[in-house]
Structure formats: C-alpha cells, structure tokens
Amino acid sequence: MSEENIVYIGNKPVMNYVLAVVTQMNGGVPSVMLKARGRAISRAVDVAEIVRNRFITDAEVGAIDISTEEVSNMEGSNSNVSAIEIQLSK
Amino acid sequence: MSEENIVYIGNKPVMNYVLAVVTQMNGGVPSVMLKARGRAISRAVDVAEIVRNRFITDAEVGAIDISTEEVSNMEGSNSNVSAIEIQLSK
C-alpha cells in the first residue's frame, strides 16, 4: 500500500480517528483504509460516516471487507474475532 | 425484496440471529440481508462470519453498505446513528 494509509480503529473516542483520517486526506493521501476488530467495528463505521458527511464530502466509501481473525488471549488459547476493512477515497 | 429476507440484528445473543439466518437459507431463501445500527453493527459482522464459516460454507458475503440514519430519542431530539447492511447469498 504505497499511496494508501491505514488507520487502525481502537477504543479511543471516535473523533480521534476522524481527525487522523481527515488530516491524511487533506494532506494529499487519496485513499485511507480503516481497519477494526471486534467491538471497534461499529466505531470504524462511525468514523467513515462522519468523515464523508461532515468533513470531506467528496470522499467515497469503496470496498468494504469483513473477515475472521484468530487472536491469542493471555491464557494462551485462541479465539476468533470479526474484522472489517473500509476503504475511503476521494 | 421478494426473494430476499431481512434479519434485523439487535441486542440478543449472536447465535439467535445466526439461527434465524441459517433457518431461512436452509429453507430455500437464496439471499438474506442483515441490517444493524449503532453498536449492533459489530454483531451483524459476527453473524455473517459465523454463518459462512461454520454453518453454510457456500454462503458468500455480497454487497456491504454503510449509511447514517436519523433517530429520535425519548426527549424528542434527533441524533445520527451509523447503520450497516450485509448481504449473504448462496
């Protein structure tokens, strides 16, 4: 991903991630990939919607992919968690 | 949506919705649309992933759309909430 930056969505407030995306796109990055897992998936959708509705109105949501990732917890066992990737381009 | 059934994802356990989707698809419905808003968005992704990984392995995730919906709360004011639609077909 040369021209494309990735923003990982975690548990911080939504506007932190919105600001990260807006800063990148206004700085000349044409396409940003939002990635999130588990409960942060809802927040990733919020970020995409807020960016394109309020800040960069010519941004478009491109491909949205969902998948399952295996994560190890602290007890050493594995569990599955859902993940999402949302592409935002302008 | 004649051939297509909609399953609204809310706050019940994930497996309730998985069962609803699996029942429909095994009953001959070729395409099911999952719809969710707000925090239930993560659960909708879980449902789609569990259905296609564990129960109906020839099911495919089709179009995924995200949007913003305006909802009225009990005080009478409006707020925006993100929404997702995930199409599952076999």
TrEMBL record, chains A, B:
GO BP, sorted A to Z: chromosome condensation
Keywords carried by this UniProt record: Chromosome, Cytoplasm, DNA condensation, DNA-binding
Molecular function terms, GO-annotated: double-stranded DNA binding; RNA binding
Places the protein is found: Cytoplasm; Chromosome
Phylogenetic classification of the source organism: Archaea, Methanobacteriati, Methanobacteriota, Methanomada group, Methanobacteria
Underlying gene: albA
Protein's name in the database: DNA/RNA-binding protein Alba
This protein's record includes keyword Nuclease: no
InterPro entries cross-referenced by the UniProt entry: Alba-like_dom_sf, DNA/RNA-bd_Alba, DNA/RNA-bd_Alba-like
Sequence similarity: Belongs to the histone-like Alba family.
Superkingdom of this protein's organism: Archaea
